[in-house]
Automatic annotation (TrEMBL):
Domain of life: Bacteria
Pfam family, one: HTH_31
Domain HTH cro/C1-type stretches: 29-84
One example GO MF annotation: DNA binding
Organism listed in the record: Streptomyces solincola
Region described as Disordered: spans on this chain: 1-21
Name recorded for this polypeptide: Transcriptional regulator
Length: 284
């Protein structure tokens, strides 16, 4: 039964819809199981729960027991267990962030290193409030003012990572064209440039600009995020149009790391990027 059909069946039977956070956790558990190539019938005995209980957790109808992460570690390995632990953490938080994003938001909070490349919009951790407001205002379908305020607060709260994780190494590769577009107008762009210069000056944050003239560019396959976990395993993450994929397969993540590393060599150095950002600020 698909997640959509699960929801339709519950509504038809008069069952209340599970909380969004539990549905998100269930989706992560299901994705990890499927990525391991296991059916529910195969997975259940490995984690020592019944098949119906596993199904209910995946549907968001049961809160995960305290020993679930340990049992997943025994059966699927440390990497998937780290992902699941991050998803468990997401059950306790994050108003204002989309349900499909919350597992990655939890992953960010434990990461030793975070790498981000986006070719469509400035990464959320670097968006100043004026830019953020424009992102929310222009987003479709339109939301109520209360909902936009909630999302704004949630995204600004997420940016506290840059303050509370001074030992995390952050790397961002930004497209020069995204800044030149002046998304949101002159003042939003000025605020953006000031923010990039301030945050890029911190010892644990590296910002590199990919110039428009770059003839070789490994970002042609699209946006990507990478996170190094405390056990030094890496995860990948991609998102688009209100959907996301958390990537745990070591081979795929290795390819992503290779591409990101190549992009860093193709982009301007942090020093040259800072000089360019200062020039762009002066030209406004």
């Amino acid at each position: 039964m698909t997640a959509v059909n699960d929801g339709e069946a519950r509504r038809a039977q008069g069952e209340p819809e599970p909380p969004e956070s539990l549905r998100t956790f269930g989706a992560v558990l299901k994705a990890l199981r499927e990525e391991a190539g296991l059916t529910r019938e195969q997975f259940a005995p490995l984690v020592r729960y019944s098949v119906p209980y596993v199904a209910k957790m995946e549907q968001g109808r049961r809160f995960p027991p305290g020993d679930l992460v340990g049992r997943v570690s025994e059966s699927l390995g440390a990497g998937p267990a780290r992902v699941l632990d991050a998803a468990v953490r997401s059950l306790r938080r994050k108003p204002g962030l989309a349900s499909w994003f919350q597992p990655w938001a939890a992953t960010e909070e434990i990461a030793l290193s975070l790498y981000t490349y986006d070719c469509a919009v400035i990464p959320g951790l670097l968006q100043p409030e004026a830019y953020l407001r424009e992102v929310l205002r222009q987003r479709l379908p339109a939301a109520s003012q209360d909902k936009m305020d909630e999302r704004l607060a949630g995204r600004l709260e997420r940016q506290r990572l840059l303050e509370t994780r001074p030992d995390t190494q952050f790397s961002f590769v930004l497209e020069e064209a995204l800044i030149e577009r002046r998304f949101g107008g002159r003042e939003a762009t000025r605020s953006l440039l000031e923010t990039l210069l301030e945050r890029g000056g911190r010892p644990n944050i590296e910002i590199q600009v990919m110039p428009r003239s770059a003839a070789e560019h490994q970002g042609f396959e699209g946006p990507m995020c990478l996170a190094e976990l405390p056990d030094h395993h890496w995860l990948g993450y991609v998102e688009a149009h209100d959907t996301s994929t958390l990537i745990t397969d070591p081979k795929t993540v290795s390819f992503m790391l290779q591409r990101y590393g190549k992009m860093r060599s193709q982009a301007l150095s942090p020093e040259a990027s800072r000089s360019l950002l200062e020039q762009m600020r002066g030209a406004l």
